[in-house]
Amino acid sequence: MLILDTDHLTEIGRGLAPGARLVQRLDASDEEVATTIVTAEEQLRGWLAQIGRLQDPHRQIAAYQRLQERLAFFAAWNVLPWTQEAADMFVRLRAGGVRIGAMDLKIACIVRSQNALLLTRNLRHFEKVPGLRAEDWL
Fold first, then answer.
1. Is 119 helix (H, G, I), strand (E, B) or coil?
2. Could you give the domains of the chain?
3. Where are any strands of DSSP class E within the chain?
4. Sorting pLDDT into bands at 50, 70 and 90, what band is 47?
5. Looking at the predicted structure, is the pLDDT value of residue 96 above 90?
């Protein structure tokens, strides 16, 4: 299974050449492709924060439209859940001294619990997670 980190998923959503090349490579793979609920949370928090900063209700129209498009985008994806196994792993890794951002560590725990490969540009941080397989396909 291939699991896309937020940066790889964002490239697909932009509709530009790097995302198109990534989609071609994913399509050529025999692997199942997914993302995580943590990635969905990160992206949705960003859109909600943008809406919250806009005071003019007319300026919010476009932001709400982009939020709605993102919700539809995630509805078409296999979004892996945050599970008891992932949460237990998170606690063990933190206690073992793994120090990366909480959201990245949550993504790593979901990926490891699935025995999957994480696709990310952030290899420097994710290499700190023992047993995690990660590659940058961008």
1. strand
2. 2-135 (3.40.50.1010)
3. 2-4, 33-36, 79-80, 117-119, 133-135
4. confident
5. yes
Banded pLDDT at 76 (limits 50, 70, 90): very high
Give CA separation, 116 vs 45, 85, 102, 105, 136, in Å: 25, 14, 19, 15, 14
- Half-sphere exposure (CA, 13 Å, Cβ side) for 131? 13
Give me the residue label for tokens 């896309």: 4
Can you state the angle between helices 37-53 and 102-113, rounded to 10 degrees?
Answer: 150
| Overall residue count recorded for the chain in this entry | 138
N-terminal to C-terminal alpha carbon distance within the chain: 17
Reported pTM: 0.91
* Strand 133-135 versus strand 79-80 pairing type: unpaired
User: Average pLDDT, stretch 71-92?
Assistant: 96
